[in-house]
Write a structure and sequence with these properties.
heterodimer; A: 107 residues; mainly alpha; Arc Repressor Mutant, subunit A; two-stranded antiparallel ribbon; B: 872 residues; alpha+beta; six-stranded mixed beta barrel; globular
């Protein structure tokens, strides 16, 4: 299936999502990525990535309860699915395999 | 926490495009993100970044679905207006007809509204007018009401009615103003109490309001009179010599005040006010004279709630002063100042009166015109819009929703109606001066912007808009686009023709109603002009002799004038013709059993009176020179008085007036001494020597038809020997006509507006019928192809209207009968409503129908069928 491919940013988002158990949503994910990678993130890119992941069924979302913050607006929380975890593993395996095939370089 | 919120505009923008499915989440996240940014980078950068973030959210999958877009119609507004303009151009003839009709309708009702509002605004400019009352002298038993009140009311009221804060009076007197050797007769001169100017709120230009009428020989004049006599306004302290006719006295008056000319919407209209203290010198003890009913009285109460307690005390007040001459049958009506203009038709006395019946009539016509114009507009608009099924279909195919289509029609109508409204307002301002001239008012263009007028306009706007927009908005919307676009219009339209038929019905009703009512109003005016007054008014002239000195010599003057060539009869009388009847006394008669206090008018005449005016005797004999006692102990009474007595014959019976009694010699057939609004009251005719208030002070002459100018020259010559006044004669028939002058003018205006109303309904019918003919053009053509003649087609087409027509007549004509009967009740002598009026109305309506239906369907029926049958 064409859709199962993971983009670089998507992979990052999916990873972060898996790390942040029960509190993964765009803001926390974005902040975590910023922290981990030092990149500046636009929220909408995170969102876009999340929606794509959801479409690919790597994550599933549910609406959190409304709190006093954000003007009472609810959050859409994400959690990784089994398929998502498989995809991450796969990506990691592919990389691991390829790393193992890597000749020695001296720069 | 700091109140540091993300920029509102960005949020709004987000809301505009973001699908509601995602909005909550996205917005929440953005806000949180923003807060973090504020912490990291400061609020300015955070805000900028927020904008940037919002913009980056414009991504296809989060955009609103078209379904969600429907509320954003503003983009289409221009398109709607463009389509409206194209529609106007396409149906130029219908559309202009429509717009013109609507504009005329609004214009007419706007003018009428202004008129009515002006009538209603009378006397409301006085400060505290709610607490000012005119005191009306009322006889509860006879029902007589008069604005002339006994002068002692004022003197005693202050102590007996503590609730009355202030009380003021004024009374008219004709004066002669002498200036530079010339004499000017001034009719609108009034004596007014000291507090008059502070009681009312007339605008003072010069002088001190509080004291301008306190001194004897003070006079206050209006600005225009000041300019007339002194050529300037600062005339306080100047002197003005006047001569009072009735008292035959000369005064040198000192000007103490100049006031603004009175507003036209004041029932009091005077040019001069003389101070009341002056009159005490002239009329002696009039202040304590209960029998003298001359002055108009006004009282100011503390508050409205005092009115009841004042009313309760009235009978006691009259009881208390009975010994001094107060009549126990007297009563006082407290008439609110604002009511004086329109609610005084049954109160005798001079003052300019408005007529409530006319206001109703006028208002009614306005509503009719507006109704006709609105129905026209609604009809033509809906008819036209039913041809726009394809447009609606296309709009729907392209994603237009019902709401949008409805909105479009409302916007289109709203635009047209708004244009018509603005146009009508502009036109109103233009024609207002003309209208003012016709109705005798001084309304200003800015009066249109009064709140009530604007409210009426807003109301019209909403009603017309809703009525004309609702049909296309609802009915057109119900079509299935597929039907329409495929050309299955008939299936789509359904048969909603009953709506149109109902509107035609209403149009017919209005037309028939207006036509028949107009005819009746017109008949009534004719009736008044031609009514047999009971005497012969043609070639009769009436000359008032106000000068006391001349009155003494009246017999001599009369004798000399009777010699003049061209004078066929001459008589001296205590009343002019037409007459207000100025002397009314208590009426009693032999065998009177009722306690009722009935008044009888007393008119001084001479032996030639009956011959001169050509009134006839019902029984008995005329007064005779041969019978000496006639001059002191005998009288004539009129038919009304005779009927009151209940006698069967005269036989030397006596009638009494106050303290005097006279034998009745004869009974005069009733004749109308005043307008037909009033009935003929009991009247007695007596011989009176000069010197009393009721003594002859008028000359009445009948001239020969061919020698009018010769006779007038001769009379003038004699007149000038006795008087330094110009001869003031009036033709009696003209004076009678002028009694109805305002009325006639008014009725003409009403007639004019009715004709506009009729015109509008005809316009509507023509438009509608031509539309229907067009819709039926194929049907007609097919009938023709199959062999129908033009006549058959016309008959078929017209017969559709026959039922509607009959129903309309059955509704409108009885209604009109009832309404006009009610209106005619305002006249003492109404014309009888004849069936020919209704026949005429029906015939005219038929004619209008046939012409409009016939001409339009004839156009289709007589043309070559192929024109309508070939596919275009």
């Amino acid at each position: 299936m064409k859709g199962t491919h993971l983009g670089e940013f998507e992979e990052l988002v999916l990873l972060t999502c898996a790390l942040l158990v029960n509190s993964a949503y765009s803001v926390t994910i974005g902040a975590e990525i910023e922290e981990q990678t030092g990149r500046t993130i636009t929220l909408s890119t995170v969102h876009t990535a999340l929606y794509r992941l959801e479409k690919k069924e790597f994550v599933e979302s549910y609406m959190g309860g409304s709190t006093g913050e954000r003007g009472g607006r609810r959050k859409r929380l994400y959690r990784i699915t089994a398929a998502g975890f498989d995809a991450l593993n796969q990506a990691k395996d592919i990389r691991g395999r390829m790393w193992n095939m890597m000749p020695n370089y001296k720069f | 926490m700091k109140k540091n919120k993300p920029p509102k505009w960005a949020d709004r923008f987000l809301k505009l495009f973001c699908s509601s499915e995602y909005l909550e989440e996205v917005q929440g996240d953005l806000h949180e993100w923003y807060k973090i940014r504020v912490g990291q980078k400061g609020s300015v950068r955070a805000k900028l970044l927020y904008y940037y973030d919002v913009i980056t959210y414009i991504r296809g999958f989060r955009l609103k679905r078209i379904k969600e877009m429907e509320r954003n119609n503003n983009m289409l507004l221009l398109n709607y207006l463009k389509v409206a303009a194209r529609q106007f151009k396409k149906n130029f003839w219908y559309s202009s007809l429509n717009a013109i009709g609507l504009t005329i309708g609004i214009l007419s009702s706007l003018l009428i509204s202004l008129y009515i509002l002006d009538e209603l605004s009378y006397d409301r400019f006085h400060v505290d007018h709610e607490n000012i009352y005119r005191l009306v002298n009322h006889n509860p038993k006879s029902g007589d009401k008069s604005q002339a009140t006994p002068s002692p009311w004022k003197i005693n009221m202050g102590s007996d009615f503590p609730e009355i804060k202030a009380h003021t009076r004024l009374g008219q007197d004709v004066v002669l103003i002498k200036q530079e050797g010339q004499n000017f007769l001034e009719n609108d001169f009034y004596w007014a109490d000291e507090n008059f100017m502070s009681f009312f709120s007339f605008e003072v230009l010069q002088g001190n309001r509080e004291i301008m009428l306190t001194e004897p020989n003070s006079i206050v004049l209006t600005a225009s009179k000041a300019l007339r006599y002194f050529d300037r306004l600062d005339v306080v302290g100047e002197q003005l010599p006047i001569k009072v006719y009735d008292g035959n006295k000369d005064f040198l008056m000192k000007v103490t005040g100049v006031i603004e000319d009175l507003p036209t919407n004041s029932h009091l209209q005077f040019d001069f006010l003389g101070s009341m203290p002056t009159t005490r010198e002239m009329y002696g003890k009039f202040d304590n004279w209960w029998g003298l009913n001359w002055l108009s009285s006004y009282a100011k109460l503390e508050s409205e709630s005092d009115l009841e307690s004042v009313k309760v005390k009235v009978p006691g007040f009259f009881d208390k002063y009975q010994r001094e001459g107060a009549s126990e049958t007297n009563g006082i009506i407290f008439q609110p100042l604002a009511d004086v203009r329109l609610n005084s038709s049954d109160i005798s006395g001079k003052a300019e009166k408005g007529n409530k019946d006319y206001i109703y009539l006028f208002g009614f016509v306005a509503v009719m015109i507006l109704l006709a114009a609105s129905i026209n507009y609604v009809n033509l608009t809906t008819a036209k819009s039913s041809l726009r099924g394809k447009e609606v279909g296309m709009r729907k195919v392209f994603g237009g929703t019902r709401r949008q289509v409805a909105r479009q029609f409302f916007i289109e109508c709203g635009f047209q109606v708004a244009v018509a409204l603005v146009l009508a307002m502009g036109l109103t301002m233009l024609v207002l001066p003309l209208f003012n001239e016709v109705v005798g008012k001084q309304m200003l263009p800015k009066d249109i912007f009064q709140i009530p007028v604007l409210a009426v306009l807003a109301f019209m706007f909403v009603v017309i808009l809703v009525l004309s927009g609702i049909y296309p908005a609802l009915v057109m919307n119900r079509f299935r686009p597929v039907d329409v676009v495929r050309g299955n219009m008939l299936g789509a339209l359904g048969t909603k023709s009953w709506v149109r038929k109902f509107q035609v019905l209403i149009q017919f009703c209005i037309a028939a109603f207006l036509i028949s009512s107009t005819l009746i109003v017109f008949n009534q005016m004719q009736h008044i002009n031609q009514f047999d007054k009971g005497f012969n008014a043609s070639q009769l002239i009436s000359i008032p002799v106000d000068d006391r000195g001349m009155q003494e010599k009246l017999v001599l003057i009369k004798d000399r004038m009777s010699q003049v060539e061209g004078v066929s009869q001459i008589s001296a009388s205590g009343e002019s013709l037409p007459s207000q009847m100025n002397h009314t006394l208590g009426f009693s008669w032999e065998g009177k059993t009722t306690e009722e206090n009935i008044g009888i008018h007393l008119v001084a005449i001479d032996y030639d009176y009956l011959q001169t005016i050509e009134a006839s005797l019902l029984m008995g004999r005329n007064l005779s020179k041969q019978i000496v006692s006639d001059s002191v102990a005998v009288c004539l009474i009129n038919e009304s008085a005779f009927e009151k007595t209940g006698w069967e014959s005269l036989d030397g019976k006596k009638v009494g007036f106050d303290n005097e009694s006279r034998v009745v010699a004869g009974v005069i057939e009733n004749f109308h001494y005043n307008s037909l609004h009033s009935t003929v009251a009991p009247t007695a005719y007596v011989l009176l020597p000069p010197g009393s208030r009721a003594s002859p002070d008028n000359l009445i002459l009948r001239l020969n038809t061919e020698q009018v100018t010769v006779a007038l020259d001769g009379i003038d010559e004699i007149w000038r020997e006795y008087s330094d006044q110009p001869l003031d004669f009036r033709f009696v028939d003209e004076s009678f006509a002028s009694l109805y002058g305002d009325e006639q003018k008014f009725v003409k205006v009403v007639l004019g507006f009715s004709i506009i109303g009729i015109f509008l309904t005809v316009l509507g019918l023509v438009g509608l019928v031509s539309f229907m003919a067009e819709r039926h053009s194929r049907e007609i053509s097919i009938r023709k192809v199959l062999g129908a003649t033009i006549g058959e087609v016309l008959g078929r087409f017209s017969s559709q209207f026959a039922v509607i027509f009959i129903v309309a007549m059955a509704v409108a004509l009885p209604l009109s009968y009832l309404a006009m009967e009610e209106w005619l009740r305002g006249f003492a002598f109404p014309v009888s409503i004849s069936w020919t009026v209704f026949l005429t109305a029906a015939l005219v309506s038929i004619l209008i129908t046939l012409l409009s239906v016939g001409s339009q369907s004839f156009k289709v029926a007589s043309s070559n069928p192929i024109k309508y049958l070939s596919d275009h």
